[in-house]
TrEMBL record:
Species annotation: Panagrolaimus superbus
PANTHER family hit by this protein: PROTEIN BUD31 HOMOLOG, PROTEIN BUD31-RELATED
Superkingdom of origin: Eukaryota
GO biological process, one term: mRNA splicing, via spliceosome
Family the entry assigns: Belongs to the BUD31 (G10) family.
One Pfam family it belongs to: BUD31
Coiled-coil intervals, chain numbering: 18-45
Localization: Nucleus
Entry GO terms, CC: spliceosomal complex
Protein's UniProt name: Protein BUD31 homolog
Record's keyword terms, sorted: Coiled coil, Nucleus
């Protein structure tokens, strides 16, 4: 689904400032299309969706930084991006909470997705894990988002 189709679904004209982020959002949309059509041969089932999680994270982080950190876009433009489903509002809500500033995806904090009812291994601080060991989250491929 192209960016223009998503924007038509919102049924309103993009607010002022859309021109400044449109090209970047179009690039993210193209990357997403490429990731969705990429071959999955030789990959585990979970590894096939890792690029999609990463692109979703990057796109959401881009808008989050512009709105909350740099204050370069308006509330109207931020709300428009949320309404058009260009960003993940639940992930952004987690980023605003202490300890979750670098969270890679929401599946890593859902205890129902783990064997022992705990957070994902990527949420364990690197200082608590053997430095020689390479950790990868099975959900999104993250190598440690807790710091």
């Amino acid at each position: 689904m192209s960016l223009n189709v998503k924007l038509r679904r919102v049924r309103r004209k993009p607010p002022e400032g859309w021109d400044s982020i449109e090209s970047t959002m179009e690039e993210f949309e193209q990357k997403m299309r490429d990731a969705e059509t990429e071959t999955h041969e030789g990959k585990r089932k979970s590894e096939a969706v890792w690029p999609i999680f990463r692109i979703n994270h990057q796109r959401s982080r881009y808008i989050y930084d512009l709105y909350y950190k740099k204050e370069e876009i308006s509330k109207e433009l931020y709300d428009f991006c949320v309404d058009a489903k260009l960003v993940d509002p639940q992930l952004i809500a987690k980023w605003k909470k202490q300890g979750y500033e670098n969270l890679c995806c929401l599946r890593c904090v859902q205890v129902r997705d783990t064997n022992f009812g705990t957070n994902c291994v990527c949420r364990v601080p690197r200082s608590k894990i053997d430095a020689e060991r390479v950790i990868e989250c099975i959900h999104c491929g993250c190598r440690g988002c807790s710091g």
